[in-house]
Amino acid sequence: MARLTHNRLSETEVKKARCPKSKISIDLRDGNGLILRISQGGQKHWRYEYRDNNQKKVLPFGRYPTVTLKAARLLSQSRKQISPRCGAA
Asked: Buried (b) or exposed (e) across 32-66, using 16+ Cβ within 10 A?
């Protein structure tokens, strides 16, 4: 069984992260379903991926830096408490 990890990213890593020109976008995973998607244009969006009835679902949390790393983690945790069957993807 895979070990769930969380809080892998630091605020500094999030701030400095860039998408390579060779890719359209990249995903940085903080753990437990929380993802920061970075586009080639430099936009950063928080997403929460989870499974519902064995289907992958994505819940957008907003754009960084409007939604900080700390706020995204809180949103992720509150989402799990509201609907416990929505485990991380």
From this structure: bbbbbbbeeeeebbbbbbbeeeeeeeeeebeebee
This prediction's pTM = 0.83
Q: Is the pLDDT of residue 84 over 60?
A: no
| Mean pLDDT, rounded, of the chain | 88
Joined tokens for residue 9: 């990213």
CA–CA distance, 28 with 11 (Å, rounded to integer): 12
Q: Is residue 2 part of a domain?
A: no
> Does residue 4 lie within any of the structural domains?
no
- Say if 88 falls within a structural domain: no
Tokens for 7, please give them. 């809080």
pLDDT at 36 over 60: yes
